[in-house]
Amino acid sequence: MNLQKMMKQAQEMQSRLQEELSGLQVEAKVGGGMVGVKMSGHKRILAVYIDPEAIDPDDPEMLQDLILSAVNEAMRKVDEALQSKLGGLTSRLPGLFGS
Q1: Does the model's pTM come out above 0.85?
Q2: What is the per-residue DSSP string for the chain?
């Protein structure tokens, strides 16, 4: 396989991946669903949900921890989806990435 053809395939793969990431949305809920985050495939936060019962003026650290956990979980889900998509796309490029 010539290098020029492989580069073209890699560019096409990158374009497809960008398109798929644009349409990807994940949601992560923590604290028994008391806090939730919706995130795009480009790791932009699209929405945050906070159950009013999670708001304790005497314990703001708990809410901070829940929000942090929800954001980290959403980012993990995006990474997981990306790895899954990359695995399928790289298998289409024989000779590249050790396939």
Answers
A1: no
A2: --HHHHHHHHHHHHHHHHHHHHH-EEEEEETTTTEEEEEETTS-EEEEEE-GGG--TT-HHHHHHHHHHHHHHHHHHHHHHHHHHHHHHHTTSTTSTT-
